[in-house]
Amino acid sequence: MSREAFVNGEYTEYINSKVHIEDRGYQFADGVYEVFAVLDSKIVDYEGHIKRLYRSLKELNIASPIQRKSYKFHIYEIIKRNIIQDGLVYLQVTRGVASRDFKFPKNSKSSIVIIGKNTSSNYYNNNFNKGIKVKTTKDLRWKRVDIKSLNLLPPVLAKQYAADNDCEEAWLLDDDGYITEGSSSNAWIVKNKTVITRPVSSSILNGITRSTLIKSLSKVGYNFIERRFNLNDIKNADEAFITSATQFVMPVIAVNNIKIGNGRVGEFAQIFKEIYFKYISLS
Ligand code: PMP
After folding, report:
1. How far is the CA of 208 from the centre of ligand 1 (A)?
2. Domains of the chain
């Protein structure tokens, strides 16, 4: 079976899919994106992701290239045409094609690309059982990371730095030495049975996985507080983990080579993973 992509209104063979050389996404990272997890050929927390997509578009003054209700149709079409059971769908919208100029073009039509792929659930489960290691590095991103924009060079460099140091994720440090979030995930610690994560502001992405987990924690009565935490808090934490649409709940067993708790996947990570999967919406 050959993979298919949705590119500006057409379904095309993945390997032959093309966008214009003067697409502003390519030249200026002038666009936004969403990643939807797919489980059992269904979209996880669709409404949260589509709401955030529209918010990102609005903040950047980019028009949606298709009607709101059409997103679900095309995402499903990608799931069907690529026979995705468990995996992800990546969707990106840019300001479109125009002769290179920093100013917004007057009449450009926004571009859209949707692609998808299978990832085995074993892959997630194996990683979960091992846990991941984290490296901290300075948060060099712009001041509006609440917008899910294509402007991803700082997280790319941070993730590479983590990989070069034998870690799977980078946690980003603000100027005061507090963790903002992961390079592509939200960051959490657990101390004395209280779950801690940074409050939402323009310095973190309001993760959909984060929101779903918070809702589920409150339903099952876990203590939860939104506050900043630093390396000292991490050293004293009982557990740590990250959340994202592709990693769901993923335990962190070490930060900068310092073991978290006993250096093994903790009991809360296991519980939170189960609660999370119980409360996601599949549509
Ligand atoms: N923060 C950043 C910087 C991210 O890139 C992501 C992944 N998109 C997240 C948090 C987690 O967001 P979500 O749970 O919506 O995937």
Report:
1. 7
2. 4-119 (3.30.470.10), 125-279 (3.20.10.10)
Q: How far apart are CA 137 and CA 28, in angstroms?
A: 25
> What is the structure's pLDDT at 121?
86
Which is the closest atom of ligand 1 to the Cα of 155?
3
The span from the CA of 242 to the CA of 209, in Å, is: 10
Question: Rounded to 5 degrees, what are φ and ψ at 107?
Answer: -125, 30
Secondary structure in 3-state letters for 97-136: ECCCCCCCCCCCCCEEEEEEEECCHHHHHHHHHHCEEEEE
Is residue 148 flagged as an active site residue? yes
- Could you read off the pLDDT of 145-177 as tens digits, one per residue? 999 999 999 999 999 999 999 999 999 999 999
Q: Which residues does 272 contact at the CB level (< 8 Å), separation at least 6?
A: 195, 213, 217, 241, 249
Phi, psi for residue 127 in degrees, rounded to 5: -65, -40
Atom of ligand 1 nearest to the CA of 245: 16
The residue contributing the CA closest to ligand 1 atom 8 is 184
